[in-house]
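Hi R.,

Here's the chain you asked about this morning:
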Amino acid sequence: MTDLLTRTIKFDATRKAGLERLDSFVPFAGTTYRTERNFDYGPANRSNVSALSPWVRHRLLTEQEICDRVMQDFALSSTEKFIQEVFWRTYWKGWLEMRPSVWSIYETDRMAALKRTQTNANMRRDYTAAIEGNTGIDCLDAWAKELVETGYLHNHARMWFASIWMFTLRLDWTLGADFFLRHLMDADAASNTLSWRWVGGLQTKGKHYLARASNIRKFTDGRFDPQGLTENAGPLPDDFAFDKPVPPEPPTPLPLGKKAMLLITEDDCTVEQLNFGAIEICSIATWNLSDLRSPLQIGDAASDFTTRALANAASRACEKLGGNATAFTGNDAIENMVTAASDAGAECLIVPFTAQGWARAPMNQLAAKCRERGIAFCEIQRNWDIEAWPHATKGFFPFKEKIPQLMLTAGFDIKGKR
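And the predicted structure, written out as tokens:
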């Protein structure tokens, strides 16, 4: 791999930094990415992957513009693997959006597992060893410490980690998913939770992923030689039946000619791209709900990235729309937020769409409080999600077949330049 792509990454939570990383990665989004993406060379060398996920998760960069930048240089056939990775996140979010009970059940099961760590001494010991990197399994211990220190893990390492957690350490998968949610800068309710379920054999029923020592040695370039892995195990037991997918509701039309407070959340930090039509934005606010990712404390790297991403988003929004932004934090800010909107003369509150996850219930509470105070509540949904999510009814492979058409619908020339 050439050194033209920066080996180490400064995860600066700004749109400018994300665009710079995207530009530096684009030349390697074809054959190089396809052949080398599965190698985890460690935190000192991320030259073989885009590492764009923290910016994408907060939509400091959008999926549309990432694909647009790559497709300026490549035909879809040449960069298909990278484009598919972009759509994986879209697929997971659409899948969970149509089955919200999967998230609520996860939250219930996670709380029960956390309580068991307080009453079961053996479980508490094994859980503590895993999250502190003291299991004696070299790769898992290194990844646990890397995650806490940096807020990032290579995608392949996440799969290995989850598999070892479940099948070798025999720890509850919801505790592992929670560990990731607390520390990943790109923590996403759908992508994280459903990926853990997939590794365990709960998502695609009966199909699970087993980490193998030989595979880890190969794809970490010999950095690790894990001993004692369970390499022969069946999927996790499961009698949960998925709900029938319920298609997402169509977006609510904007109330034209109204004054509005614009609310920015970690789900979309590029609000200046949105079309507000004839609405007058009279007030801007941010709402940081990242502490609700888990009942436990959120890691510094993850918390800092979200806080700085929201500040960067507010700065850009104020520069374009005028005024200053007010920062709100936590679920207890709802009353103060609605009061601020009312004091600013807002007749409605506009916020980019909040997908299923830890922020959905507070957003519903905010909507109810707005209506109680005579303020309309409107969520703006991006066309990318509107077009793609309804196709996430089954597994990823049927969804993958829709990608070329989704690209055409989004306005791409999928033949590209080469």
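The chain has a mean pLDDT of 94.

Let me know if you need anything else.
M.
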